[in-house]
Amino acid sequence: IETRLGGGPLSGRHVIVTSGPTHEPIDPVRYIANRSSGAQGSAIAAALRDLGARVSFVTGPATAAPPQGVDVIAVETAQQMLDAVETALPADAAVFAAAVADWRVTGAAAQKMKKGPAGLPQLALAENPDILAAVSAKGADRPSLVVGFAAETENVIEHATAKRLRKGCDWIVANDVSEGTGIMGGTENAVTLISADGAEAWPRDSKAAVARKLAQRIADHLSAGQA
Ligand code: CTP
Ligand code: CA
């Protein structure tokens, strides 16, 4: 049931959400990627939509379906994701939930690479553009709220706090994806919201509930800024 007609705290607002992995081709049939279902990103886009936002949903090849009622921009590589985000600007807020591949293969083969007597392929890597850092560093075009994610396997708060400063974003949603938490690929998430005010641990809940809470925080922040 749609409750956003004519209202919602984010009506008239534009929010960009990145989601899913990126795929960096090695050859036409192989790629490098991070593990990401896209479930948390899809849930965030749906929650922002439910509060009335216009959502540009820039997604890599995720397994989770994109939500209805958002503008879906499907991409494959990190470079394409950056281009799509820049095209979607300006925005009031941007949430970077994608698991972007840190490296791409330079000189990806145009034809399928074959096994053979020539031995193992040598892959040369180059670092991908950092989409979150690039948007955080924008001037007039910078969204007033930029939110990054930090999936860590150890020293979560420490790494995520450093990441917030390094990237220049306003908030980091940090989570512990180490083995045994069951968060990677699961339906639940346990996150800590890191801002200039410090770290706030949220109780473990469904990815949908975490998304609703984050969307509400974004709405509160934007309306406070307007006052
Ligand atoms: N991110 C991005 N573009 C990249 C890499 C990361 O936009 N090329 C964003 C992610 O979407 C996430 C945040 O940056 O919101 C943190 O990603 P993460 O991989 O944890 O950060 P990195 O700086 O790549 O650090 P690490 O070495 O821990 O992977
Ligand atoms: Ca990374």
UniProtKB/TrEMBL annotation:
GO terms for molecular function: FMN binding; metal ion binding; phosphopantothenate--cysteine ligase activity; phosphopantothenoylcysteine decarboxylase activity. GO terms for cellular component: phosphopantothenoylcysteine decarboxylase complex. The keyword Metal-binding applies. It catalyses: N-[(R)-4-phosphopantothenoyl]-L-cysteine + H(+) = (R)-4'-phosphopantetheine + CO2; (R)-4'-phosphopantothenate + L-cysteine + CTP = N-[(R)-4-phosphopantothenoyl]-L-cysteine + CMP + diphosphate + H(+). Residues 15-227 are annotated as: Phosphopantothenate--cysteine ligase. This is Coenzyme A biosynthesis bifunctional protein CoaBC. CTP binds at residues 102, 112, 129-132, 149, 163, 167. The gene is coaBC. The keyword Transmembrane helix does not apply. One of its GO terms (biological process) is coenzyme A biosynthetic process. Its EC number is 4.1.1.36, 6.3.2.5. In the N-terminal section; belongs to the HFCD (homo-oligomeric flavin containing Cys decarboxylase) superfamily. In the C-terminal section; belongs to the PPC synthetase family. Catalyzes two sequential steps in the biosynthesis of coenzyme A. In the first step cysteine is conjugated to 4'-phosphopantothenate to form 4-phosphopantothenoylcysteine. In the second step the latter compound is decarboxylated to form 4'-phosphopantotheine. Catalyzes two steps in the biosynthesis of coenzyme A. In the first step cysteine is conjugated to 4'-phosphopantothenate to form 4-phosphopantothenoylcysteine, in the latter compound is decarboxylated to form 4'-phosphopantotheine.
